Amino acid sequence: MGTERVLQELGRIQTFFPILPQAGNRFAVDRPWEGLTVGLHLHLTTLTAALIRELVLGGGKWVISAANPATTDPGVVDYLRDLGLTVYSGRSINDGIAGTLSVQPDLFADVGFALGAALLRSNRPLRGGVEISRSGVSKLRSLPLTFPVVNIDSGRLKPAIECRHGVGDGLWASFTALTGKHLAGRPVAVVGYGPVGAGVAACARANGACVSVVDSSPIRRLIAQYDGFETPTIEEAVAQSQVLVTATGSRDALSLELLRQARDGAILLNAGHHNDEIAVEALRREADAVDEVGPQVVRYALGGRQLVVLAGGNPLNIVMNSGSQEPVLLHFTVLGLALEWLAQQNDLGPGEIIVPLSIEEEAARCALFARGKG
Ligand SMILES: NC(=O)c1ccc[n+]([C@@H]2O[C@H](COP(=O)([O-])OP(=O)(O)OC[C@H]3O[C@@H](n4cnc5c(N)ncnc54)[C@H](O)[C@@H]3O)[C@@H](O)[C@H]2O)c1
Hints:
Shape: globular
Bound molecules: nicotinamide-adenine-dinucleotide
CATH class of the largest domain: Alpha Beta
Strand order of the largest sheet: 3-2-1-4-5-6-14
Strand content: 15-25%
CATH topology of the largest domain: Rossmann fold
Number of helices: 16
Structural class: alpha/beta
Number of domains: 2
């Protein structure tokens, strides 16, 4: 049943935005990963299934681990296993990573640099990897790399298209689906004004919300002001807003102490990568009552107020797999082309490599063609 749904979804993606098969057709001819083992540590959604279906056409052995149980679609796991792939999808992310390490990958692609960090610790030679997320890039920059890693988060396309246009779109669609609320006239605070927060804020404003922005960086606050947003302190924003969104990549951006100051009825959601930007664990521990009031909607009573957390503080648009799929599919095309490029290189030194322009130009050409078809 789950597999049937995934197959139908893959057919729909191919009908409306046929970007990945353009790369897949070439992989099928050139077989860039023949003789290589590739580890993938990604959110296992139908979009990832659409990517992996094309990657496996290029030969090689593929081993997959789920980046987050909350973003894992069990139908996708079944679909990938039906393709004959090894998939680790249990509750323990570390077990999945250990399983992938045991097959000694030559190449990898990662979200959050969890697999990459484990490969570094394992200390074995590697052709290289691809990191797709901002959080992963921050992490890899803090580690002494012994192999090349292509950073596709800091290229030209991801910040401008996926972060800026993709996340907010899906996030607010899920917000309305889960709560039934319209944003119009509601005070919304966006914490973190990188490309993701900027897109989330712009989309909320387009839907009529009264949006304010909080950022620890004065530069980002200044940019937010020029974009037309108020920039209160976090304490002011928390006290005033009915809806609070994190997009920081930082743990406890909304700490328990801040949550104690939130408005009665405040709704909390996360657009960042991890599930710890909102202090949900501490909230659960300290709450006087916890009620699941709907799918992905939990209400906490804390010191006489009610607070509602969506999707357990996990990235809401990913958990709900919502919004236009074009930006993620574009991003995944860049990922596939970057893995192909890595397989063709023989003399790369260790360290971070910003995704080469030629790869993004090719992905953009594929996207333009797919948009013309759709
Ligand atoms: N949900 C999704 O689909 C999706 C897609 C892409 C990226 N992401 C994730 O979204 C997050 C943000 O991405 P980005 O590219 O905008 O990152 P970024 O680093 O460019 O921006 C984050 C901003 O948050 C600010 N910040 C950090 N900690 C803060 C704190 N405690 N209080 C206030 N401000 C704080 C920083 O100053 C920065 O301006 C990352 O974790 C990234 O991995 C999620």
